[in-house]
Each structure stands twice: as structure tokens, then as C-alpha cells.
Amino acid sequence: MVHLPNVIKEKARAVRLVVFDVDGVLTDGTLVYAADGEQVKHFNVKDGVGIKLLNTYDILTAVISAKESAALSRRVKDLGIQHFFPATKDKWAVLSALMDELLIGTEEVCFVGDDVIDLKVMKKIGLSIAPKDAFWMVKDHADLITDSEGGRGVAREVADIILGSRMPLEEAYIKAMLPEFENVKQ
């Protein structure tokens, strides 16, 4: 992992909730439709490990997406993400209500987004992260830009940043090597 500035490490250390957008973050943003009209999405298994690791260390995860699909619902279920908000038009309203429910302050939230719909949230929370290939305006407002492009390990990189702010990553990954870690799909 690349050396992070102390201000980013401090922000990452305060995070209790990591929220992911989907298209362009957990996927590469490509929309593929099967012959029956069903959306097909490609997810990265490394991201699954990262999300599971966050949850293993009691860091809450959520997905807030402007779109809805069966593939996304299945992935969220497989990863055990408890806070899922598909077909969301106002991400800030949804996130604000979730923070109230969980008693979490804005400085304890990390949001990972890639397009202009995410800016309203990214400007108000503690740590905003954008993928390497995010829209330029989003990157201009992000606290950190990942080395990974959307759908290519962004969530894993975010997990490494959050967990690495708390402990050596080798220590964090010990839990991923345990047999019970594999009980949840990635």
C-alpha cells in the first residue's frame, strides 16, 4: 500500500461506516443486458474480500446505488452487506437517515463514488474516495483517489486504507486466512 498522508490516515481511523456506490466503483460501469433484458454486472472477487474484512473488524458497510438490478441484490446478499439502498435518487437523504439510525457522525463515514450524483455526499462526509477512472469533477472533490479503476479492486483498496490506519495489514489479513472466513461468498 502506498504511503498515505497523516490527515488521510486520521480520517480513515475515524471511519465506522463505509458506503459504496456501485456502477463505476464496485463494477467498471459497463451495463450489459442479456437477451431477456436482465442486467449482467461483473464484480471483482478481491472487492468481496475487502468488504468482508471490513465487516469482520466491525466496520459497517453499505451500498447506495441509483440503479437496481437482480445481480446487484444478489451480490449484496452474498457479501452480507446489511445496509442496501438501490434505486436511490437522493443519496445524501438516504445516508443521512442511516447515520441517524446508526448514531454515526459525518466524520465517521467514508463514501466511495465516481460520478456527479455522488458529489453531494462526498462534500459532506469525513473521508471521500474516488476510483482512478472517476469523472474529473468527482476526483477534484475526493480526499483520495485509488490506484484501482472501478470494478478492479477499489473496495479492496479502500478496505486496506481503513484497516491499515488501525493495524498492520498483515495482522488484518490473518482473519481472511481462517477457514470460517470462507463461509460467506465473495
Task: Provide an overview of this structure.
- With 186 residues, this protein is α/β, with parallel strands linked by helices.
- It has a single domain (10-179), classed as Rossmann fold (3-Layer(aba) Sandwich), CATH 3.40.50.1000.
- It is built from eight helices and eight strands, in the order αβββαβαβαβαβαβαα.
- The protein has helices spanning 6-14, 45-56, 70-79, 91-102, 119-122, 136-141, 154-164, 169-172, and strands spanning 17-20, 32-33, 39-40, 60-64, 83-85, 109-112, 127-130, 144-145.
- Strands 5-4-1-6-7-8 form a six-stranded parallel beta sheet. Strands 2-3 form a two-stranded antiparallel sheet.
- Helix 2 runs parallel beside helix 7 (154-164).
- The longest helix is centred in the N-terminal third of the chain and has 12 residues, at 45-56.
- It is globular.
- The protein starts with 5 loop residues before the first helix and ends in a 14-residue tail after the last helix.
- The mean pLDDT is 93.
- This is 3-deoxy-D-manno-octulosonate 8-phosphate phosphatase KdsC.
- Belongs to the KdsC family.
Q: Helix fraction?
A: 25-40%
What's the helix count? 8
User: Could you spell the SSE succession in H and E letters?
Assistant: HEEEHEHEHEHEHEHH
- Which regions have little confidence, pLDDT < 50, spanning 5+ residues? none
The CATH H-level superfamily is HAD superfamily/HAD-like
Which structural category fits the helices and strands?
Answer: alpha/beta
The shape is globular
Query: Kindly, what is the distance between the CA atoms of the first and last residues, rounded to a whole number of angstroms?
Result: 22 Å
Beta-strand residue fraction = 5-15%
Based on the coordinates given, report the CATH architecture.
3-Layer(aba) Sandwich
Largest sheet, order of strands side by side? 5-4-1-6-7-8
Tell me about the biggest sheet? 6 strands, parallel
CATH topology: Rossmann fold
Number of domains: 1
The CATH class assignment is Alpha Beta
- Radius of gyration (CA) equals 15 Å
Mean pLDDT: 93
Number of strands: 8
Binding site for substrate: 23
Binding site for Mg(2+): 21, 114
Protein name: 3-deoxy-D-manno-octulosonate 8-phosphate phosphatase KdsC
Pfam family, one: Hydrolase_3
